[in-house]
């Protein structure tokens, strides 16, 4: 009898622990880890599916969920994945200049609005575009014939949003980024900058030998310039 008594006490203790550890967070936020059976998958004023959200039939519920729970690391990756899906490049895993030039405006607007909404206007493509354009114009006025204008502009931008330290040639490793709401304006999203096809890869069929010449974020300045131009041509707004 004592054996069964202690077993019942142990089971009761485990149930109390499980309720405190998992049940209360689930009841409070609707989510535990990435399982969100009771969470709302929509923002009150932002469409996440249908023609109002996407020109190519994408659904942005998962991104909205990550952002609403401040899971910026997964939201950053999800944003990059949606960018690839929007131009049907998810299998190839990289973008070409024509993909960015013709990127569907409604999808870019949805991505931007979700980041703006869930960061109180600190993160998003328009925030990045405005800061980058300001830096780019300033450097262009200082040196109109600078052949490295895009690269220099991106370096200054990367320092401003804490992607790299001053006077260092490389961006900080992504795992060291302070992915939190206190990040500098324009700090996120960032992972999409790794999606651009490296120039030397274009010399091979379907990027067969890309791994021989492609370094992470080596095309980031070009990518930033092209996305900045597309953000502007789509008439996206920050608020």
Structure, explained:
It contains eight helices and no strands. With 239 residues, it is mainly α. It is globular, with a radius of gyration of 22 Å.
Task: Outline the fold blueprint.
Elements: H1 2-29, H2 61-68, H3 72-86, H4 97-101, H5 105-118, H6 125-142, H7 149-160, H8 220-233
Major sheet characteristics: none
What does the radius of gyration come to? 22 Å
> Could you report the average pLDDT, rounded to the nearest whole number?
78
Q: How many β-strand stretches?
A: 0
Strand content: under 5%
Keywords:
239 residues, mainly alpha
Structure, briefly:
This protein is mainly α. Helices cover 48% and strands 0% of the residues.
